[in-house]
Amino acid sequence: AAGVSPSTVTRVIQNKSTISDETKKRVRKAMKELNYHPNLNARSLVSSYTQVIGLVLPDDSDAFYQNPFFPSVLRGIAQVASENHYA
Fold first, then answer.
1. Domain span holding position 71
2. Is residue 44 part of a domain?
């Protein structure tokens, strides 16, 4: 769809400076049209970097969620994680 090689698509996803802005734009447009999203599991196998955040919650999670402070902290964590491509 974008007329480029798979390795060029990979470099666009990695936002490499060696790829021209025009090519990046064309590849990202094709990705959007095809509803393509990189597979985070495959990426983590290659890079040994998962971009996954784990949280440890108390056993009594009902009490945890009844306090309005903690859900707002979780929303903040989720927002920043999402903005930085974490799962």
1. 51-87
2. no
**At residue 21, what are phi and psi to the nearest 5 degrees?**
-60, -35
CA distance linking residue 49 with residue 69, whole number of Å: 31
Query: For the segment 18-66, what is each residue's pLDDT rounded down to a tens digit?
Result: 999 999 999 999 999 999 888 877 777 777 778 888 888 777 777 777 8
Which pLDDT score, from 0 to 100, does residue 23 have?
Answer: 94
At CA 46, angle to CA 43 and CA 49, rounded to 5? 65
- Distance separating alpha carbons of residues 50 and 52, to the nearest angstrom: 5
Output the 3-class SS for 5-56. Answer: CHHHHHHHHCCCCCCCHHHHHHHHHHHHHCCCCCCHHHHHHHHCCCCCCCCC
Look at residue 55 and tell me if it is in a domain. Answer: yes
Convert the pLDDT of each residue in 28-40 to its tens digit: 999 999 998 888 7
